[in-house]
């Protein structure tokens, strides 16, 4: 009888521990979803205000988020998304992407060589891959998060790098190009810790 009770308690503790681990991961996913929703809502407001501006009354500017750090983060993610779209044209990597990756880091910044290598490998992975266009928002969020490696737990980093690898491979990037990007983001996250 004691064995059954001890076994039951052990199962309860194991389930609780697993749920706590999932809670941390789910919190980061929920935060990313909120950022995406806020970005999409701001985009929608901008589209609405442009259509209103064509009417008789001038449009009101879209309200900014109350938190300036959140506003800067959302602006940086939007800029990274636009920079990824520019990489898709097979032109030389824009200085804008370099500047936006440097600006993404809230603490320690990655070296210029690391950022340049990442940009080159990213361009090789995304250029000419129209299937990746729909994933630019997610890729931009991941690049922003990885530029702040100190804020990521090992579990969060692993989840992001696994999903990044999955997105690139399913979007048509070669195995070699995907591997180079994953190696680069590991270095990037390591340098920003």
Helical segment count: 7
Biggest sheet, in brief? none
- What is the overall pLDDT average? 79
- Topology as a string of helices (H) and strands (E): HHHHHHH
Sheet/helix structural class: mainly alpha
Overall shape: globular
Q: Please, could you describe this protein's structure?
A:
The chain has two domains: 1-63, no CATH class; 68-191, no CATH class. With 193 residues, it is an all-alpha fold. Helix 3 (95-104) crosses helix 4. It has helices spanning 2-53, 68-87, 95-104, 112-126, 136-146, 154-170, 175-191. The chain contains seven helices and no strands. Helices cover 74% and strands 0% of the residues. The model has no long low-confidence stretch (mean pLDDT 79). The longest helix is centred in the N-terminal third of the chain and has 52 residues, at 2-53. The radius of gyration is 20 Å and the shape is globular.
Question: Layout of helices and strands, plus pairs?
Answer:
Layout: H1 2-53, H2 68-87, H3 95-104, H4 112-126, H5 136-146, H6 154-170, H7 175-191
Characterize this entry briefly.
With 193 residues, this protein is mostly helical. Helix content is 74%, strand content 0%.
Feature tags:
2 domains; 0% strand; mainly alpha; single chain; 74% helix; 193 residues
